[in-house]
Amino acid sequence: MQPQDLDLNYGLLEDILKAFLQNEIRKFGFSSVVLGLSGGIDSAVVAELAVRALGPEHVLALKMPYKESSRESLEHADLMIRRLNIKAEERPVTPMADDFFRDVPEGERLRRGNIMARTRMVLLYDVSARDGSLVAGTSNKTELLLGYGTMFGDMASAVNPLGDLYKTQVRGLARHLGIPSILIDKAPSADLWEGQSDESDLGFSYGEVDLLLYMMLELRMEREAILGEGVSASFYDRVRKMVVRNQYKRLMPVIAKISGRTPGIDFRYARDWQEVR
Amino acid sequence: MQPQDLDLNYGLLEDILKAFLQNEIRKFGFSSVVLGLSGGIDSAVVAELAVRALGPEHVLALKMPYKESSRESLEHADLMIRRLNIKAEERPVTPMADDFFRDVPEGERLRRGNIMARTRMVLLYDVSARDGSLVAGTSNKTELLLGYGTMFGDMASAVNPLGDLYKTQVRGLARHLGIPSILIDKAPSADLWEGQSDESDLGFSYGEVDLLLYMMLELRMEREAILGEGVSASFYDRVRKMVVRNQYKRLMPVIAKISGRTPGIDFRYARDWQEVR
Q: What ipTM was assigned to the predicted interfaces of this complex?
């Protein structure tokens, strides 16, 4: 298995994702999206797709730095804003985050990271209510499967064009879209503290884990067959456990079933239920 | 149709919900819950159930007042805390909420209400991470169906024992559990601003709408049959539209389907996937 095995027809993919954004946004009478533009590749790709799908006047980028956010991230976000000629607002999260942090010791990085991600969600959703727009999500499939994200934080959105694309495929799409290579080639980071990098956090590269997840999910290969491809047993077991343990992040809250029709269990209409039009 | 038609065997219901809490919490190695105790009937019932299911030492109540929260709400929350002999913490949301409110005009009550609900979610989830506990939800079925709640705010939880109970049934259960009648009989309020009441907000009573929802969902009665029960056409149409329009609040974010196995669409294991034990 090679990373190239995950490659997609990126021209066709661009068309599908543009149609997805147009359809899922306009069917409810909306015409615009707002997204958090972090300076990373995922949000850059979503911004690019949204502009191509809806037009630059219908895309608002929120820059939501914390006082410790890297200068580089903001510069890369500005690079995309100029490239796409879209409106942008800078809404620092420092005041709110620091209020929350008063009760959170400095070393509690995961708790602080979750608080920042959720503070950003509060801002994004308030701006979407202010403007009558929808929040575009930027979580990719690798993050969603590993649970490498914050519930009700960066994982919260109305429409997410990247949720079924491994990071490797987001990179391929980014190259196809002509996203500046400086954003594609730098080490991915959620920028939650200085020098933070996803891959050092996780202890493996996106390239490695994407191949493993692809073999597990898409190819449905058994453990022995995957180990036969040169994947170590410890890596396999660790990733499998991450996927299983984080299933709750991919589901609605558990509701105690009492009646014959329980929201989310057997009262499950599609989002665009027939009466809405 | 009479409100009594919605009545349940509340003794059996208590047993079912206690078993639900025990099972859904302990199966993942947790033993405790944290919940927002507002002084209202829903959170009082969840606190009571949690104590009976897990023991008072495993229930933490967070009181999260805003500077405009009613004194009465806090007193009623304290009433329950004494009754149940549980630990409690007061974490005012005023500093964080006011930071967010700087960009939100005074009159924008819905936006401010959503910000407060999400600020409380951030606190609840941080405390659950701090203590290694799960967040117990307090949204009832009437709220979930009408969309009368905040996504990623009060609707966010790990386990929700009330999600399949109409408000009428929560009241019945509250009486069975012996919840102080002062909490049962007062006008339900999310306490988002002074004098706020759900029923004046909604323009109808919980009793009326529960009967209508029950006929629509559980009894699957057609429009004409329901109007034949004395429900006005305008009330029927308005409630039906609320239920349909808020379906998105009961679903995970929409993900563009690209692969053969898309998180949430056809990669749908139960929350307690077999490997977790």
A: 0.94
